[in-house]
Amino acid sequence: MFYGNYRLIIFDFDGTLADSRELYRKQIFLNLKKYGYKISKKKFEKNFGLRLDRMLHALGIKKHSKQIRNAVNGYVLQHANQIKALPGINVVRELKRKKYKIALVSNSRRNFIVKAVRHFGIYKYFDYVLGGDYFASKVKAFKHLFHVLKIRPEQAVYIADRAGDIVVAKQAGCDMISISNKYSWSPRSEIKKATPDKIIKSLKELEKIL
Q1: Among 93, 103, 88, which residue's Cα sits nearest to residue 10?
Q2: For 113-143, how does the pLDDT look when each residue is reduced to its tens digit (9 = 90+)?
Q3: Does residue 206 contact residue 91 with C-beta atoms inside 8 Å?
């Protein structure tokens, strides 16, 4: 139920604030190939966007999981300053000026996220930055935020680009605004099927909505 009277705004990172999809996709493919794994495109896309350890587990990869994770995470961290911020990213600064609490929750590792948002010049506007190496699930990360900030779930809204994130928001009890554009990690058809509270094309729309 979208009602727009929020105290906390939670952003996803990959595909929402940063154009990092192909950086991850290429490195995961290269490392799967390196260790001799052949994964169908359908199976890969179904699980792409999960936290990397969970993605590899879903793909049936156990023997070389640690090596692949270390290689992929090491590469993206090294190249964090090369990824591009998405159009409208300055909305984070504008929303902070309006006294919202701002958090970032992502399946990516925290050191990568922090390096990237520092590069974008928006790190100081976040009250909390939680990476996938800091929580067991996004739902638990959200509940932690609700607890420490002493807010109710319905006082929070999640901004993200994957269909799976809509499920996360519903389980956490907060509202959901999905971003669907060429940078998103889920196609619009999957996002619509998962029924978020709102769908927007750009971060630039957020100020008017919130």
Answers
A1: 103
A2: 999 999 999 999 999 999 999 998 999 999 9
A3: yes
> Which residues, listed in sequence order, are joined to residue 160 by a DSSP beta bridge?
178
Nearest to 80 by CA among 17, 159, 156, 125: 17
CB 169, CB 175: distance < 8 Å:
yes
pLDDT in tens, 187-209: 999 999 999 999 999 999 998 88
| H or E segment and range at residue 23 | helix 21-34
Q: Alpha-carbon torsion 41, 43, 44, 48, what sign?
A: positive
pLDDT score at 5: 83
pTM of this structure: 0.93
Tell me the sheet residues that pair with 170.
none
The pairing of beta strand 128-130 with beta strand 156-160: unpaired
CB 10 within 8 A of CB 158: yes
